[in-house]
Design a protein that fits this description.
The complex is a heterodimer.
Chain A (H helix, E strand, L loop, with lengths): L9 E3 L10 E3 L2 E5 L4 E7 L6 E8 L1 E5 L5 E5 L13 E4 L2 E4 L4 E8 L8 E12 L14 E19 L4 E13 L2 E12 L3 E10 L5 E11 L2 E2 L2 E5 L6 E10 L16 E9 L1
Parallel strand pairs in A: 3-12
Antiparallel strand pairs in A: 2-4, 4-10, 5-9, 5-11, 6-7, 8-10, 11-12, 13-14, 14-17, 14-18, 15-16, 15-19, 19-20
Chain B lengths: L2 E3 L10 E7 L2 E4 L6 E3 L7 E6 L5 E7 L3 E4 L7 E5 L5 E5 L8 E3 L5 E4 L7 E6 L1 E3 L8 E13 L1
Antiparallel strand pairs in B: 2-5, 4-13, 5-12, 6-11, 6-14, 7-8, 7-14, 8-13, 9-10, 9-12
The chains are: A mainly beta, B mainly beta.
Chain lengths: 274, 150
Amino acid sequence: MTPSRLSFALLVTARALSAQGVVIAPHAVFIDARTRSGAVLLYNPNAEPAEVSVSFFFGYPVTDSLGRIVVDSIRADSTSPSAAGWLQAFPRRLSVPPLERRTIRLLAVPPSPLKDREYWARLVIAARGGSLPVTGAADTARVKVGLTLEVRTVIGVFYRQGAVQTGVAVSGLRTALVGDSLAVWARLTQLGNAAFIGTVRAVLVDASDRTRAALKAPIHVFNTMQPRYTLSIGALAPGRYRLKLELSSEREDLAPELVLPSPTVRDSVEVSVP
Amino acid sequence: MASSVGISAPVIGQALSVTTLASLNFGSVPQGTPTTVAPTAAGAGAWQVQGEKGADVTISFILPVLLTNIQALPGSTMPITFDPTAARWNRGTNNVATAAVFDPSTGTTAKLGPASSPAIYLWIGGTVTPAATAKPGIYSGTIVVTIAYL
């Protein structure tokens, strides 16, 4: 993972005016046990310097009782696959001048011996602009109020030790009509010793196997989760339909060599529209 | 203004940016009278989140409860509150009028827009309650917005 391998470019729409914040790439960092290092690049597209600080915590996406996917900090114990305690960032604080780039180096110093598997952490990148957003600040005879906004971006860090493999199992697929939408739930269970990273596709087909609604979204499965998805179906004629769910290890936003391959998993369930 | 930004890394093909488009600004407020900036108002705080199309993110806030006068003697403060409808988000469209309402104290989960606009727009308002005896000067605080990429 050396800078000389840096090899892609992208267009990012940046804002002028009072914009603050930094562009961060990548949105997920994969570190292997051979190099034990990674990098995150920051770009400040704004006219003012951005003050940036970096920290780690242990956490991964889970689903709440409503099926929403959230990232919570998780108290790590001796059995937790946490890398948060032995990842280091250099520097941890920096200033990114306007229209310039900076690199944050990540170094893993894992305990030894370390069991083969994938270890997880979340990297927090906090960026704060410098100026207080109050006009007429020199007028000290009036009461004025302005709030500074700080942005914290949280991305995943994956440390792979030894042989790692993944997969996903689907169970409990069910649906419910909610207004002009179809809600879809499934229990997703990670297999192997690494998170499942891939794409979920849901397709609603009619009796002629014609697609009536579809969605596609990137997904990470850590341990077990029960996400809820919503397909906009509009006004469907009464009848029987079928909801097809597919999880594959394809990701358009990640380099193929970083995504652990696994068999595509499919399930389906009948949907009755009254 | 659109800028071409060359960012390179061996690990992925997408970047993530959270840009503050506007800070929450109440301007001058009358002493003894609560002042509210709605999330739809010109003074509302606003952000743009860009990333992978269709990706899920969680949005959460750390909200101040007291603002501090940074020009007067220490101890001059002003309460600030955020009601359950003080925040909004919109998928791929910079239009607060059609944005979904959410409670900033609990946050929400959102999905970035499609390939044509892989973004989320956020807005937040609030209410300040200056005392009748509030000292003149600038009352300041910090709102922290956290965007967690799932």
